[in-house]
Structure formats: structure tokens, C-alpha cells
Amino acid sequence: MSLMLQSVFGFFLTAIVGGWIANRWQQRAIKEARFFDASRLSYDRMTRAAEDLSALSGRRVYAAQRVCLLDGADNAFPEAVAQFRKINLEWNERLMEIELSIRTLFRHSQLTSFENIQQQMANVTRAVGQIAAGDESISRKRILSDLVKIRHRLFQFIQEMIREAALLNRQMHFGVRVEYDSHGLDRLSNLTLIKLLFVSSIESDSIVRPPSDFGMPVSAREARLGINE
Q: 184 Cβ partners below 8 Å, 6+ apart?
């Protein structure tokens, strides 16, 4: 092969290989950007759900405490009762929205735990409603004690929501650490596994991979392929 043909062949080979590499990097960058945007949207929705639940539940607990702490003859008692009924109405109106957010956005903040808290709060709400109606046989001290416990459980629940959102935020910015163990083995590439064969103490080794590497495409059966679907 003449020198000129070798040069031409080398030029086209370099162009083809370079173009292929550039295209792969470009597609990967696009994929990473799409994944980051989607994760950012999920993170914003998770933090907003935690903030909404914190604000609404805090107002609900406070309103119930205020009714219990005020004497029925106190001039502020009717206003406290009205506020108590108002916040409970708002809670009931938004309960489906709250439950949907917990079920769809969070993995570790179990809906069953929230349902248990909600049941406890509903029991207290009925008792406070009896106090608001003038029933003096209800123990205000017991209700106040129950409200302290509910407030603590709500704090723990919302704290777990915030922790899960923070984990997603870290994943978005710093990637996913995959360790050489039973959980991470099937998430390691073949090349990485080959490299680990020549490294001592492989059980303690780990790699960091971009979170988009773990994305799963939808099947044709699950996809929305028609414009009218």
C-alpha cells in the first residue's frame, strides 16, 4: 500500500473512530443531563412533600394542644376551637395528596407507619372534639401526653423523608458507590470484575458509577407509543 493510501486510510479510520467516540460521549452526556433533570424534579417534589407534611401536621398538633390547654370559660377558647376545626378540615381535604406523595415518592418512609400515626391522631382529634363540645369527662392531661408522642413520631417520620431526599441529592451529584459484595456484584461491569481478579482484598474494593448507569428502560408493553394513548 502506497504512503498516500496509508495516509488516506489512516485519516478515514481516525475520523470514523473519533466520530464514534465523540458520539458515544455526546449520547452519554445527554443521558446524564436527562437523568439529572428528572432526579432534580423528584428531589424537589420529595422536599416539598416533607415540608408540606411538616407544616400541616405541626399546625394540627398545635391546634389540638391549644384547645386542651385553654379553659372552656376562656375568651380565647371559641377561637381555638374554630382554628382546630379549620386545620382538621384542611388536613382531611389534603390527606389523599399526602398519602399519594408518600406512596409514590418515598421508598423507606413506609405508608403503613404514616397510617398508624394518622389513626392515633384521629383518635385524639375525636377526643378534642368532645372537649370542644363541652364534655369535661375527657382527660386533657392524657390527650396532651398522646399529642407529645404523636409529635415525636411525626418528627421521626418526616426526618426519614428528608434523609431519603438527601440521599437522592447526594446520588445526583456524587454518583453511586458499588462494592464488591453480594448486593453490588451484579452491578459491576465485566471489565471491572476482570480487574478485580488481579487485586488483593477485593472484598473491600469498590467503584463509583454515575447513577444513570442503573436506569432501566420500559418495555414495549409498558411504553406509551401512540399519540392518543
A: 178, 206
Residue 9 in any domain: the answer is no
Domain count, the chain: 2
Residue 201 lies in a domain: yes
Q: Which of 155, 144, 146, 140 is nearest to 119 (CA)?
A: 146
Domain that holds residue 134: 14-174
Residue 6 forms part of a structural domain:
no
Interval 68-105: pLDDT, tens: 999 888 899 999 999 999 999 999 999 999 999 998 88
